[in-house]
């Protein structure tokens, strides 16, 4: 079940996406646009997702993502993450997983925290002091207390 894969059991390689989890994620991903230039074939979305999870899990920098892992380049994974984020994939996935957990009665609300504060003012607060003008003009000296204006020295 997805719950064990997402919340519970720890895997030795948590960046590998299971078939069950992929079946939930894949429909949420936007269709790739047409390829503008010929070149390397597009890295499959599932491999790119594994690369994204690898970087997020290990903390490695995107440019150091090892090519040997088969996830594509770090820049490819980073671009895919940005595109999916812009398309709202993560919010949709969150809702899908919550719905699945709710229907399986697997949500543990004993660990939920709600934080808020509301303080009623006993009286009206003090009147606001008018802000000092920021209009063009001379400002008071901040370097000398004895003079009303800053002195100007001329270097010749």
UniProtKB/TrEMBL annotation:
Question: Record's superkingdom?
Answer: Bacteria
Q: Where is the Insertion element IS402-like domain?
A: 17-94
Which residues does the annotated region (Disordered) include? 123-156
List the biased-composition ranges (Polar residues).
140-150
Q: Which Pfam families match?
A: DUF4096 (PF13340)
Protein name according to UniProt: Transposase
């Amino acid at each position: 079940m997805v719950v064990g894969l997402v919340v519970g059991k720890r895997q030795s390689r948590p960046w590998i996406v299971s078939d069950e989890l992929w079946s939930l994620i894949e429909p949420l991903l936007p269709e790739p646009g047409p390829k503008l230039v010929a070149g390397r074939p597009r890295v499959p979305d599932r491999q790119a997702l594994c690369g994204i999870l690898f970087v997020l899990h290990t903390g490695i920098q995107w440019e150091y993502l090892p090519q040997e892992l088969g996830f594509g380049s770090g820049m490819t994974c980073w671009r895919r993450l940005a595109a999916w984020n812009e398309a709202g994939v993560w919010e949709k996935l969150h809702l899908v997983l919550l719905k699945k957990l709710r229907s399986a009665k697997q949500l543990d609300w004993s660990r939920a925290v709600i934080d808020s504060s509301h303080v009623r003012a006993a009286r009206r607060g003090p009147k606001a002091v008018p802000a000092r003008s920021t209009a063009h003009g001379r400002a008071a000296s901040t370097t000398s207390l004895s003079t009303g204006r800053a002195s100007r020295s001329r270097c010749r």
